[in-house]
Amino acid sequence: MPEGDATTARAAETARFGRGFLRDIWYFAALSGDLRPGKLQRYEILGEPILLGRRGDGQVYALRDICPHRAAPLSAGRLVREAGGSEVVECPYHGWRFKTDGVCSAIPSMVDGQAIDVGRIRVRRYPAQESQGMAFVWMASDARGEAEPDQPPPTFPGVVGGAPKLVDRMVFDSHIDHAVIGLMDPAHGPYVHQNWWWRSPASQHDKAKAFEPREAGFAMARHAPSKNSYAYKILGGAPKTEIVFRLPGLRYEHIEVGPRQVLSLTCLTPVNDGKTRITQIMWSDHWAFTLLRPFIASGARRFLRQDAAMVNLQNEGLAYDPTLMWIDDADRQAKWYQALKREWTTSRREGRPFANPVEPAVLRWRS
């Protein structure tokens, strides 16, 4: 297939809901604290095996976790320091060594007179950067991995007080598209999250929220939480919150209570077509996260697992590849997500700036 046709085919597959992945974009990979100097860690992102590590000078790096010699995972090897002082990843099978930029530096089995330029051998390097205590990996559309990021990794408001107060991790058995719209869906709360401290079907009422475009996404503009969302009451005062979604799968809620802040960030990272890694991170300088931390952590974990249970239940129907119905206004955010994906893919293919397709709107639903 000609390269142009292949690119168009990939774009069409990405645009289809529940298929493909966005490229030329930063994906959350790990918390900075997870990456210790000298430790080699294996991740799978977008179906690609990735070695993520940290050098002795503190710099993070990411390489394709397959040795080009005999396909052994490089993450099963070790980080060693060569005579010149540079750090290299040593394959556990035959000791081939690769610099953290992916270039091969040594093949121990070679002897004098064997004319192989080891510097021409390389494994794919993925650009990796840290931002606010998180490590992001740039997943380029260029399969050779030579394209460099044309934008910095994302930043978020409300990252206060140093280390996160809470971190929870799990894997949803779903494509990232279903995970994203499941977490942003405004109408499932009274049914999926039936907790005494949250909501119930009996407490439902009509709601109207203002939405506006944001960088590579959209936001539910800052507002007072709904009266049937009892969990906010532990924060006291008069909390104001905004909820933001940003491609490829970053959803955060930023709450302000006077001078205090709470940031709840959910990072969705595709493992492959059928699995999505969910990392829930919370920062706060509010006293409640000191005195009530075990209860808040328990509630957050329960929420995420209730969503996971519904994903598993939904999979029973998705197995038959049904046509899905999207209704206004409760499903408008899901429609925006799909429009954002299409525009991201199209703008990157055409080499032009991203044009956010979301228009300001007031959405109304009952929950």
UniProtKB/TrEMBL annotation:
One of its GO terms (molecular function) is metal ion binding. The keyword Cell wall biogenesis/degradation does not apply. Transmembrane segments: none annotated. It comes from the Bacteria. Keywords: 2Fe-2S, Dioxygenase, Iron, Iron-sulfur, Metal-binding, Oxidoreductase. Residues 27-137 form the Rieske domain. InterPro entries: Cholesterol_7-desaturase, Rieske_2Fe-2S, Rieske_2Fe-2S_sf. The keyword Cell membrane does not apply. Coiled coil: none annotated. Pfam families: Rieske. PANTHER family: 3-KETOSTEROID-9-ALPHA-MONOOXYGENASE, OXYGENASE COMPONENT, IRON-SULFUR DOMAIN CONTAINING PROTEIN. This is Aromatic ring-hydroxylating dioxygenase subunit alpha. It comes from Phenylobacterium montanum.
